[in-house]
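Archive maintenance. Older records in this collection stored only the sequence; we are now back-filling the structure field for every entry so that each record is complete. The fields below show one back-filled record exactly as it appears after the update. Entries are processed alphabetically, and 1,4-alpha-glucan branching enzyme GlgB is next in the queue.

ARCHIVE ENTRY
Title: 1,4-alpha-glucan branching enzyme GlgB
Organism field: Streptomyces mauvecolor
Length field: 772
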Amino acid sequence: MTPLEEADPVTPRPARSSSESAPRTIEPAPAAKPAKAPPAPRRAASRGVRPAPALAAADRGRLLAGGHHDPHALLGAHPVRGGVAFRALRPYAQAVTVLGKGLRAELHDDGDGLFSGVLPLRDIPDYTLLVTYEDTEIEVQDPYRFLPSLGDLDLHLIGEGRHEELWTALGARPMAHQGVTGTRFTVWAPNAQGVRVTGDFTYWDGTAHPMRSLGSTGVWELFLPGVGDGALYKFDIMRPDGSHTVRADPMARRTEVPPANASIVTESHHVWRDADWMARRAERPVHEAPFSVYEVHLASWRPRLTYRQLADQLPAYVKDLGFTHVEFLPVAEHPFGGSWGYQVTGFYAPTSRMGTPDDFRFLIDALHEAGIGVLVDWVPAHFPKDDWALAEFDGRTLYEHEDPARAEHPDWGTLEFDYGRKEVRNFLVANATYWCEEFHVDGLRVDAVASMLYLDYSREHGEWTPNEHGGRENLDAVAFLQEMNATVYRRCPGVVTVAEESTAWDGVTRPTDHGGLGFGLKWNMGWMHDSLGYVQHEPVHRKYHHSEMTFSMVYAYSENYVLPISHDEVVHGKRALVSKMPGDWWQQRATHRAYLGFMWAHPGKQLLFMGQEFAQGAEWSEGHGPDWWLLDPSYSAESDHRGVRDLVRDLNAVYAAEPSLWERDTDPSGFTWVAGDAAEDNVFAFLRHDAAGTPLLSVSNFSPVVRAEYRLGVPESVGTWGEVLNTDELRYGGSGVGNPDPLKPEPVPSHGRPVSLCLTLPPLGTVWLRGV
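Back-filled structure field:
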């Protein structure tokens, strides 16, 4: 590394984490003496250096306190009468010398780390600074000789709240500027009196690096030569009341490993290998394609694995089971692991717990190579109150709503975003496109949409204010979600957005140009709660709850749905899926299998949380993840769990091969009840149809008895039917009851059809049949 590439200022010393010392502690260079009082001014050593005009007391005070809006007007080199004035702010330095071609001039020591002088020059030269400390000299570039490194177009778009690539303009970006390599630091802090950059390259003393305000946009900027990839940094902000707060960068693209919380300068070196995947993923609309999702909490799927180690195991596992997609619980940086990622502090940074952003890119590349799409949970509904993150970022409400009643989330102890502020909306819309474009993710599952849509969400009467029309809808949030969806779908072909929305809000998956929110899919929370409620009853009581399984078809085509058996349903006393089922161990597993067979055949896409694919009996915990030992051959009940996993593999294989199960998921013509009223029998039978009308018959028997010669009316168009899947097969751990031979319809009218099949229904089982 050449002297001009050195970080500024540096002496040879190991980097320190921002959390190793109090954030406001000033740590001098090793040889510096304790600053008991400003050093006495001394004369410059070079001839021809005249004293520079003294700074006005107000400017000097604001500069040294970190509250000056334009430090570049005071520092650096400026033409003056009789030459060029140079001024540098170098705390703990003993001398500062200006170097250039044919130039070496030591500046006057003005005290408090300020050095200045006027040189008899006609023009400002290319120059560097030689900074002398007690036991070393460092030659550095002067950050205050550079023009602003952020363009007018960027500032205009930021001011309009329309910068769709905001991450390229704000944050820390390594770059070459005016022929010099370094890092551009920019931050939005419109209420700040002043902002300084601090980091391991300044020993966490930001005094020497005040930023300049770029006008009414509220953006502050500073280009620091020599600072590059891997440097730790934060922003030291002077609040409106004159106090200081040290904050992580809201736009940081990499962070320290929690509980440390500094931001890290980063640039990607990953070379993508998924061009074919990216080109093909938009060929078929997602609602007309197979879509079977394995939901994963990355940090606990295989605890202590890195992103790259996960890339060696997760794609192979998911591909073997036949899922088309994985969905990661939030991967954006979060301070508390127990939040599972749902309380985000670093919206632009993949969590560093498992590696670098490029390591995360490597994992996604590996999944795409295996033919698996990637969705990530995205949390624009709220953020935590950590005093080093977004809360009152620049001393006043900024990202959160200025009305405390609107800002405080009543359930989670967090703050809600102010969706009516254009810069906040821009921050979030750009964040959505960032994950899609920078990490090639194929979908965003948007968390807690209902909490965003309603002003009275979890609030009592008198705790909320109606909107301008007197209603309870959050019109700002509606506009934000519409803008986010429209932007993502316009910029990122093939990406799907999925809403976790638990109410009857009209038009969640309706296009924005038709007044909808614009999501591609919506979690069917009603189906989940109703169907789980049904199977948790003893079979003898299920006839009284039959409608809980059929009601979903009343509204199945009102939205484009995903059927989720998610992480939320297998924690905190809700029990794992198999443990929800009544009866002995055999009956629990049988009902578990039958339920999955019913779910995979029901209109809508499927989502299953990790561990449920092999009937883990214990609730999930982020501390230890799935109970993989249940699949150890040395475990006596291993075959029981492996059988369930084999069923999930076959469900996905048959599902992918049968267009009738997905091609008309959002079209009522793709579904027909055969027996939706067989409450006394605990039986549900229906037909699914593909675009050509080819049927598949699904029959579920949720009673623990074999139902022999069970007659069901079927279409005349199929001459012979055969089982393609039976959840009661011996290899799945079942009893082996079924219909092994082809079945021909008999001319016996049933269920409104002239022909019918006479089936044997296995106990607590689901069978699928099609034409053979």
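Update note: The chain has 16 helices and 33 strands. The radius of gyration is 32 Å.
Entry marked complete.
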